[in-house]
Amino acid sequence: MKRSEVAKDIIRDFLVIFASIIIIITVLRQIFMPELAFDLTSIYTIMGFSLLGALTGLMLYAPDEVSEQAMRVRIVIHFLLLELLLITLASLIGVVASVSAALLLVLQIAVVYAIVRLLSYEKDKKEAEQINERLKAVKQDIRE
Question: 96: helix, coil or strand?
């Protein structure tokens, strides 16, 4: 994969992560704390966490082809590393002060991670369909 494609994927993942977090927090705040508004510090914190989450995605890119099993292992390691890194950072800066808050953050990270993985899966599925169509066209050209 080219560097420009990797950079494009990281930027896309950052935006998806950031948007997902903002949407989830906005909905939950409207339900549980409608008087609470976003301040600039919380938006910057969310942006930082989103960027960190997107940058850890670099470990999923390999210059050579990897097997499906190896990629699944990378995804699991990436998820666990991301959880550990974000929870540690959150506790260091004081965003998480209790075990229940840490567990809630773990759940939120898992939901956002699932959304990003699902969107990546859909993109990969479309690319695979395009490749298959091209291969069918080449195969027909060879037969003719």
Answer: coil
